[in-house]
Amino acid sequence: MKRRTIVFVWIVACISVIGIFFTIKSFSPIKAAEQPNDQIKIDSFAEADLDQATVVLTIGDTKKQNVILQTEGIQEVDKKLINSGIDSGFDGKITVEETEAKNRKKLRIENGTKPLILSFPVKKEKASTQGKIRLMGDAEENVAEKSIAFAEASKVNESIETQDLNTPPTKQSRALTRDATTPPVDSLPLLEVFRAPIGTGPELINDGKVLRVTKNTGSQIGAIWSQKKINLKKDFHLKSYLYLGNQGAKAGDGITFTLQNDPRMATSPTSVIGSSGMGLGAYYGGRSGNPYVQRGLSIEFDTYFNNGSSNRMDREVGENGKKGHVAFVTPSTQNNSYTGQHHSWILSPEYLSNDTWRTLDVLWDSATQTLSYTLSGVGSDSYRIPDLNAKFGGTEVYWGFTGSTGGSYEENAIAITQLPGDVEQTAQIENLTQNSQAQETIAAKKNDTLKLKDTIVFDGNSIMSTDGTKMRVNLAEGLSYKADSLVLDGVKIPESSIQQVNNQLILSNLSFSRADFPYELSLEATVTSNESDVQLKSTFDYLSSADEVVSSSNPVVANIPLVKGTVTIHYVDENKVDLATPKIINQKVGTSYDETPITIADYLYDRTEGNASDTVQETVQDVYFYYKKAKANLTVQFLDESGAELHDAIVKEKTIGEKIDLTKDQDVKDAITNVLAKRYLLENSGRPTNETTVQISADGAKATYTFQGTLSIYSGPTEINFGSHEVSWKGTKDANPTYDQPLIIWDNRKTLDNWKLSVKLEDELSMPNNPEHVLNGVLSYQTATDKKTLSVDAQEVLQTKHEASGQYNVSNKTWGPDKQGLRLDVPSGAVKLIGDYETTLIWRVEEAY
């Protein structure tokens, strides 16, 4: 399937046509090879080291493919070696995986639209005379195979002299052996880049994609210059492949990359060329009238050692085994001096003319005014120009190549993948939601849709690299890319061609084929930022195939103005009544807040309504912390004077802050009644001081009733009967009366001290119906020591103490005819009238002091 190409054609006077082409390579797969065997192939090329060769793998289909690389008779090819040999033009991804066998590596290739060219040196195993490279598919079927006879590696082109064995072999980074007409990558078309060539050598071949500076013949000289100048106030990067023939030690003379502002370019540009031979088409040759390029600076790739009497400028460099050197040189009338013409140089560790395409990168750093180069297999160097006006007479220069051959010769060629030149980017932004005009800064707010666009204009020499060019959109944090909105010059870019890493959008597989025309890249984004009073800055980067930033746009800014919001924190009870002053948060929208309940006396936090942790919004926000009355226990105790419990404590859950009147609590009243029934006294002093207003606090509340023990008559006879007796002249005595219930003394006092019992008669013994008949002095009480006659006056009859709290049964313990107690003793003649005689006894118990 062919690539889709959008072609714009502008016809002027039906004669000249200027075409501008733009291609998005990922719109369709890479064009298939004409023959199946062209999809995967293996080449090997000899090296001067008899034990070493260079292997070049070409894999055409790189969209998605797994290949097993297996070697035999060859030292291990490790992952690092493979990765370093990937050609810079490859635009996909390759992953090298180890297997159990050291001579096997698995290559996973994906997302490529160009062929993969992979080159790496191999060395034979000690016992081997030849090796083998095999490529297999997933099923281990052979897809390509190549045998390498190391013994034949010495059969290098006959023009190459034997290398100095004391010089160690130098690994060439991505240097591929081919002829001058077959560069290792698809290079840029140069037909409109250069002016007409000067001299006999320069010509464009391969459909204008390769510049051959000299053919493989002698006595040539040539120069070729760019159509337009480049601005040295800006950086540039020339990426190319350089071929210096296959003549080895017999090569000559070389070529230069030259920057120049020769004043003759304005009047007679075809005269801007240097001398032949040693002059390399740029320098003064040493003879009167020899030309040179004025106001210039060259990087020379010199394959011939000039050490004669008339061509002696290389004496300061040294012969270097005729391998050649690379140096910075200023073209001038002094170029044939013995010394001082090479600003700095690198001696090549191998023949520059060894049938090899080498990567050549030339970079200009405008900040430091430094020109530098890197040539694979040779190395890197740089040269600083302190004063551009002194060197070039200005800040804009032409660039180009010069070369020459003499009695020695070589074929010299250049294939360019990235041209130096100026890139201008102008970015703008507009607010589609608010219908604002496109400008560098606009106002926006959350959820607005913005359109960002970058206008890219190249000068006449600025053609983007063909080997995997990229654009990068650096979206500000707070902007979200709107899918399917990326458009380049009116053509929507499919999402499959866009890689998004965080807020960067990387557009791979782009190619710009012509300049002098504005390209417009645009996309839409949504404002997602919750913040305010911020500037969201975005930029566009124009990248090289190595992901280097070639140019950046001005920043475009979405200005989010300061917006404040209010969050009210309420502290309420279950009826939403405020318990504390609400907290007001008035902050910038997007500010984070994190609130927690506060402590409120007598209340406990219950639940939250609203977002206690969030960001401030434009709309009013309310957060409610609900509280409920806290509960605590009320404990009522009933104790005696010693602290002993007289009744189970009453424990009730009450609301904190509540006031309780114990006199109205039925449970408390019942408990008091119960204790009083146990012959205890409750004086006012024993009641809680706050009996009617017990305050419930967070720790609860406690109230204590303290009861006093009593000394009392627990029970006593209601009737004491001495029985019936006959009146006798001898009188009547009785020491054992009967009684209906015992006389018991109760003592539950704290101390159980001594007590005394006394008794008295309410009246003397008499007849109820004839109260005038009285028996005086006939009743007595036998104590432990004596007998006391009872009268209306109280007399102590017993003194003792309780051994334990409770009852003391006086009648059981002390009464009886042989013990103590009441006695009846009626003398003879005292009874005047027969009948029933009665009286009332009054018992009294009290503490004995």
Textual characterization of the structure:
By secondary structure, this protein is mostly beta strands. The chain folds into 6 domains: 39-154, Sandwich (Immunoglobulin-like), CATH 2.60.40.740; 198-418, Jelly Rolls, CATH 2.60.120.200; 423-560, Sandwich (Immunoglobulin-like); 564-629, Roll (Ubiquitin-like (UB roll)), CATH 3.10.20.320; 631-709, Ubiquitin-like (UB roll) (Roll); 712-847, Sandwich (Immunoglobulin-like), CATH 2.60.40.1090. 3% of the residues lie in helices and 44% in strands. The protein has 4 helices and 64 strands. Strands 1, 2, 27, 29, 33, 34, 36, 37 and 38 form a 9-stranded mixed beta sheet that branches. Strands 11, 14, 15, 17, 18, 19, 20 and 24 form an 8-stranded antiparallel beta sheet that branches. Strands 12-13-25-16-21-22-23 form a 7-stranded antiparallel beta sheet, with no helix packed on it. Strand 33 and strand 34 form a beta hairpin. The longest helix has 11 residues, at 666-676. The N and C termini lie far apart (132 Å). The model is unreliable at 1-38, 151-177 and 463-467 (pLDDT under 50). It holds the Pfam family MucBP.
